[in-house]
């Protein structure tokens, strides 16, 4: 049976994610989908694996949509970042509108989840996609392991 952490543990999960993301960046010079992404994905996996899978699907749509946008407009630097994150927010909001009746618990406390697909898609555009997916996955599972061990040892509050 999985350890379900209390909402108060979210700050710790994000902090561990930031720390491990920074270590990953310093060692490999690759961003694991953005600095807050691994911590948020690990917390989403703790809540419900389907939530993390939904974010992966929205990320794929955001990546494809952003590549199409790059063909239609000159996007680079801050304009590219803003366009990709905005595209992710629009797609995630669309998913929310379509699915909120069936799965209301997915969206109960998911504020950061609206920008995470855009952050990952932005890194997929800037870095080699395979390397980005690999580093995001590895750092996310490391964060997940740390917060699960913390929950099992009673160092983090359980729900």
TrEMBL record:
Q: Which GO terms describe its cellular component?
A: membrane
State whether keyword Thylakoid applies.
no
Task: Give the record's keywords alphabetically.
Answer: Membrane, Transmembrane, Transmembrane helix
Q: Which InterPro entries match?
A: Capsule_biosynth_CapC
Which residue windows are transmembrane per the record? 6-28, 49-68, 80-99, 131-156
What is the name attached to this protein's record? Answer: Poly-gamma-glutamate biosynthesis protein PgsC/CapC
Biological process annotations from GO: capsule polysaccharide biosynthetic process
Q: Which domain of life is it from?
A: Bacteria
Transmembrane helix among keywords: yes
């Amino acid at each position: 049976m999985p350890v379900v952490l209390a909402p108060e543990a979210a700050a710790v999960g994000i902090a561990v994610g930031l720390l491990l993301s920074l270590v990953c960046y310093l060692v490999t010079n690759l961003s694991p989908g953005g600095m807050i992404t691994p911590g948020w994905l690990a917390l989403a996996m703790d809540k419900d694996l389907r939530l993390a899978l939904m974010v992966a699907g929205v990320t794929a749509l955001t990546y494809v949509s952003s590549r199409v946008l790059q063909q239609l407009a000159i996007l680079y630097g801050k304009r590219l970042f803003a366009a990709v994150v905005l595209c992710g927010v629009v797609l995630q909001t669309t998913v929310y509108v379509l699915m909120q009746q069936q799965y209301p618990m997915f969206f109960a406390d998911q504020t950061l989840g609206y920008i995470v697909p855009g952050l990952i898609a932005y890194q997929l555009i800037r870095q080699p996609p395979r390397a980005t997916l690999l580093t995001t996955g590895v750092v996310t599972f490391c964060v997940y392991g740390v917060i699960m061990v913390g929950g099992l040892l009673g160092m983090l509050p359980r729900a």
